[in-house]
């Protein structure tokens, strides 16, 4: 009997009010673009006048990150889900390309401590313990319910997906609770020392780079084997344009976005001395609100030592906050340029999933020392073992979430609610 194969909605194609339809491109939303540029200009001037010199640069990098994420619909959540559900690994191979370029750029930067503002450069290398295992697993479940990862939540908010505002709100709540509980997980549960392929093995950054490239190639090959074995459906193209116009309108190739994100992450590392991160700002925002409400946030172990200054200072002095604002604005400009900005509908199911998913992601990110950006992307690019462990446990959480999504009316694998 002949069998038919249905094309899977690709990572960089999501049929909802925010994205372009399959019939063509929309006209640019000029008024929204102008408004976004005015807001960006005001924020840029404020940062130039009141903050350190690196903050305006980080805002620009955030804009470019958000712009790239939106145009390519570069997915972390959907990449994991499609591999787990139907065996499609095209997006995960784009991850491997992104990571390959990232380690190539990160290796000399970290080896020589190169930076633009004299801060030095250090990667995200964290311990592996119960907190990372549990946190990454929770995050894997949360991003599949919440409809997006950390970066996906930000650029989906910029793109107008209303439900992602709810995900973001509870992401902040979960991250704040996680910050309050983090000392227990780090001090009272088993954990090994932080392990770097470069500095903990004697390989150096050159040897660690070789090992990393081999691992990325192996993972890419495994995804091809899985695709052949499961006869995975292919990703269908989405409308775009050609030539220089493609910079502003239509879909970007995943491989181009992978390279761009890796380069932008390296520039972020050289600008602020740390790789791109997202969720530490959520803990800061939530803690400031809790402090305003009379909760003694300063007594939490999380806000002792080096973090204490951030709690006292303006949020605009926080480099991660500035990056996050840039991502939202960049995605907003990209969506408006494509004529795609439109608020989406809320349902009881996607709101419930957004609340639970946001809480799981926020709490999980704190326990796991980061999210899909800080732990997975930044950790692996920094040659940290915890980045690989994060990816494995988040994928395990994805498998569990496949059974939970239908309870909230979310489809598998073609989700109208996943924008990451």
TrEMBL record:
Keyword Kinase attached: no
Any Gene Ontology CC annotation: plasma membrane
Superkingdom in the source lineage: Bacteria
Regions that span the bilayer: 32-49, 55-76, 97-118, 163-185, 205-226, 247-267, 322-341, 353-377, 383-404
InterPro entries documented for this protein: Sulf_transp_TsuA/YedE
Location in or out of the cell: Cell inner membrane
Keyword Cell inner membrane: yes
Membrane topology: Multi-pass membrane protein
Record region (Disordered): 1-22
Predominant location category: membrane
Alphabetical UniProt keywords: Cell inner membrane, Cell membrane, Membrane, Transmembrane, Transmembrane helix, Transport
Family classification: Belongs to the TsuA/YedE (TC 9.B.102) family.
Protein name (record): Uncharacterized protein
Natural source organism: Piscibacillus halophilus
